[in-house]
Write a structure and sequence with these properties.
Blueprint: H1 3-42
């Protein structure tokens, strides 16, 4: 494997992991907002 291909593979892997992490954090943020709305309704 050439150095160029190795760097490309590492870069693409890093981008894929970053995208997955962003989606996870975004989903967790939406869940927290939903939970806080429900708590406010009860209070």
């Amino acid at each position: 494997m050439t150095t160029r291909k190795l760097i490309a593979a590492i870069t693409l892997g890093t981008i894929a992991l970053a995208a997955a992490a962003c989606n996870t954090v975004e989903g967790a943020g939406e869940d927290l907002q939903s939970a806080s709305r429900e708590v406010k309704k009860e209070i």
